[in-house]
Amino acid sequence: MLMEELKARIKGKTMLVGIGNAMRGDDAAGPRLIAALEGKVEAALLDAGEMPEAYLGRICQAAPETIVLLDAANLGAAPGAVAILDSAELGSLGLSTHQMPLELLARYLREQTGANVFALGVQPRQLDFFAAVSPEVEETISLVTKILIAILHSKTAPETAAVLQGNS
Questions:
Q1: Topology classification of domain 2-167
Q2: What are the residue ranges spanned by the domains of the chain?
Q3: Engineering a disulfide at 124: which of 26, 63, 76, 168 sits with its beta carbon 3.0 to 4.6 angstroms away?
Q4: How do residues 90-106 score in pLDDT, each as one tens digit?
Q5: Radius of gyration of the chain (CA)
Q6: Are strands 116-122 and 82-86 parallel, antiparallel or unpaired?
Q7: In terms of Cα–Cα distance, which of 10, 39, 35, 36 is closest to 116?
C-alpha cells in the first residue's frame, strides 16, 4: 500500500530531503534513508540534518517537481510505523528536533517551487542522545529504501520492483 501511495505522489524531477539528528537514536531515520539511497535512485538527495531551513535556497534552486521530507514523526503509532503526511498534517505532530517546524518548511517550499511537497514520517521509539536506532526503525528504513529505489528507477535488478510490489 505504501508503494502505491508513493508511486501516485512522486512525479517528475524529485528531491528527497533527510531531516534529523544522526546522534539522537531514531531521529536519524531521515539522514539514514538518504545515505542508503545514495547512488541508487534517479532523484536529488539532501541530508539536511537538524537545520533544513539552511538548505532552502539549494532546494529551491534545484527546481524539483516533488519534494519528499524524510523525518522521524510522532504519529501516535507503534515504533517503526510510517505515514505519508501533507503539510497541513505536519503542524499537529508534536515532535521536532529541528528549528523550523516542518509545516512551515513544506509550505515555504511549495510556494517557492510549485512542487508537490509532503513528508514521509517514521514513528520513533526513542530519541536519546548517543542511542542506537531501534530495530523497528531500522526495519522501516530498510523497507522504505527498497520502495523508493523501486519507484525512483533503481540501478538494481528489475525483479526487485516486482518483489516489492507483492510485499507492500
A1: Rossmann fold (3.40.50)
A2: 2-167
A3: 26
A4: 765 555 555 578 888 99
A5: 15
A6: antiparallel
A7: 10
